Amino acid sequence: MSLDIAALRAEVRARQATLQARYEADNDAEALLKQRCADVDDTLRRLWESFEFPASIALAAVGGYGRGELYPASDIDLLILLPQAPSANTAEKLERLVGCFWDIGLEIGHSVRTIPECLDEATRDITVQTALLEARLLTGSEKLFATFRKRLFGNLDPLGFFEAKRLEQQDRYLRHNETPYSLEPNLKESPGGLRDQQVIFWIAKAAGFGDTWDELGKGGVMSQEGVAFGKQFEDFLRHLRIRLHFIARRREDRLLFDYQSALAARYGFQDSESKRASEQLMQAYYRNAKGLMLLNTIVLQNMGAALAPENLQRPQAYDANFQIVGNLLDICDENLFERQPGLIFDAFRIMQENSELQGMTASTLRALWLARERIDDGFRADPANRAMFLGLLQAERGVIHEFRRMNQLDILGAYLPNFGRIVGQMQHDLFHVYTVDQHILQVLRNLRRFTMSEFAHEYPLCSRTINEFEEPWLLYIAALFHDIAKGRGGDHSEKGTVDAREFCDNHGLTETDTELVVWLVRHHLVMSQIAQKEDLGDPEVIGRFAALVGDVRHLQALYLLTHADVRGTSPKVWNQWKGKLLADLYQQTLHHLAHDEPPVSHGIIADRQAEAMRLLRFFALSDTVHERLWKQLDTVYFLRHSAEEIAWHTRSLHYRIHNNQPVVRARLWQEGVGLQVMVYTRDQRDLFARLVGFFARAGYSIVDAKIHTTEHGYALDSFILLDVERREHNREMLSYIEHELEDRLTRELPPEIPSAGRLSRQVRHFPIKPEVSISGDEKGKHFILSLTAADRPGLLYTVASTLAEHGANLHTAKIVTLGERAEDVFLISGGDLSDTNRRIRLETELMERLKV
Predict the structure, then answer these.
(1) Separation between Cα atoms, residue 773 and residue 783, nearest integer Å
(2) What was the pLDDT predicted at 431?
(3) Mind listing the pLDDT tens digit for each residue in 671-711?
(4) 587 inside domain
(5) Of 190, 425, 629, 785, which is most buried, counting CB atoms within 10 Å of its CB?
(6) What is the tally of structural domains in the chain?
(7) Residue 290 sits in a domain of what CATH number?
(8) What stretch of H or E contains 291?
(9) pLDDT in tens, 289-319
(10) Helix (H) or strand (E) holding 532
(11) Is 719 within 8 Å of 695 (Cβ atoms)?
(12) Is 313 left (phi over 0), alpha (psi -120 to 50) or beta?
């Protein structure tokens, strides 16, 4: 049997045209998706039969095609399933078949595998496993396909699959800056896009919860209200993607500016005096995305609880209104916020104050979302609520997470109505890639990162400057209001000052602080304009700018806000050149101001350096003894080490900066019972694993570690150790550690594998669920590994050896042990980190190995 390929190609095109005409007539998205699947099924079956393949092999649809959802320009994913390696004749036929796929005009992705090969690929790649879960037999051996399905699902670990898909989603969110509010979002991959819905059904299918919204509702995974919302979100995205494919005439999932106006016209939107039709369409998209993100969070939480009920601990009372379930904040009464709206901000405060909390329960999120309607003029005028909101901005941690959460739940816009008006508002310029509200939150996030030592390597001058600045939360207020007046017409900087002053007055800020915030909102564009458009070599330019800022405090504040603002527009807008221009303007203006006013304190780093010098003088060392070493140390080092530690390191190393032999110094820990160890050596392979393995074998638990690499490539690491065996003579161990560790490092002996040891009673009875996340920094070269786990002997060795296995290089680490809980942050690069699938595999392996 043979087919006329040209006729088949014409038939494919005719069927596609018929589908489009029928859709435009009846506007039935589900019918289109099913009919396109049926049309392609028919075409592929006829083509397959024309090659007269052996009856023992099978052709299956996988991925979205297997699921029965085939969009107008979507790829068609196929699996050719073989009982064993193909014969030469079969292999030759398969090659010709693949050629015919393209000849007839179908964009087909295919794989040719045996069942063992499928299972092996599924084990190694979560993406492949996901696609195979949705496999659907098209033609060929039913027996082979049934065997494949049985073995695939037999090998499936639903809880492991859930964790892998959760990590994969987390990575996808990070790639899109954790926001759906890009001006040209990817309606498939962006947060709040179709992938968020598909993740729900992939996990549900793996766990046997159901294949439809109604089945999830009947199974108790979702409320009926959630089922209705799910169908609504899905219907919106289906229509949008179908229309986008028809307009683009190819596979395109980005809502590019090129298509937004045409799409808006298809939806019936028309330009108004205040908003273009495309803006109205995109605001509808953002509302849908925000809702789907929230639904995804709630449903995944419910499915996780159903899959691992043993992880659900009995609620622990926090106070009269809140309780903690596992690592989630929960409300004691689902009507709590209806009865006491004033407790709304309390929920976010508790999240900020308790680092062990990883989120909120589904019932709490739902209650907060419903309670947004209770935030009225009376709520906003209540002094207690105003003080609480200000406290959220002043918190030591969790500011970004909780303000993003408040925005997602529409609470931030309800409390600040003018902020609510710019939620989802587009910015049609050459710079911004986010809506106004998301740009503002990006700026707030950038400012917060300056204060965090784990990000000090990104922009050291900003990190140093913000540590010199008193009350950085004033900058956060300026960030919230700097663009709040966009879209009102006129100068948004001037109009924003009115909102900013009203906020400051209502929330009891001093006149001095109010003046700074209002000044920043008014002038937030000035520094970038001068830096990029005027001659910084002209003293008059510097003089005028110095006259505008007036003093160092205003200069520091404007520099930090400007830096964060420009970086918050778009990753493509920011570059090293712009950063250098801003830094040059800042430094020259700082120098200019220094001639007109007395020198100011240089903040925490200068204070630590001065104190370290004072301590060094006690040892009769010269005032220049520090210079050679300190030239090799950066901002991160001075932010993380105390003055006393800096003096100790300098005293021990100033005369052997380029030492070829490792230097190990140990002393009794001055602030508690234990030892403090410093290691200085040329960086070497698996150094961290060698160190933690040695300490563990010597009977010590690391409760704090500061890992640092100098400018000239030496490791300068500090550890605080507690004696696991509680020996009475720690002093006798000092010389042992110095001698033995120096010897092992000199000979570059392999890491010592520590014994497993015993878990504490607390950890056995109150297990801490491990949490692992790996996120790239802004420059894309380094990654931040954050982990939380139950502390136990050998924990750090487990982490270090796992990183080594994946080829990851460790640059800095902050290791903190809080009772039975370890909270560690590592700056890593290289190895498997650049590949998404391998990075997810590293996260998965770490989580598995950290379980107790």
Answers:
(1) 10
(2) 55
(3) 667 889 999 999 888 888 899 899 988 888 887 778 888 99
(4) yes
(5) 190
(6) 5
(7) 1.20.120.330
(8) helix 277-307
(9) 999 999 999 999 899 988 987 666 688 999 9
(10) helix 526-533
(11) yes
(12) beta
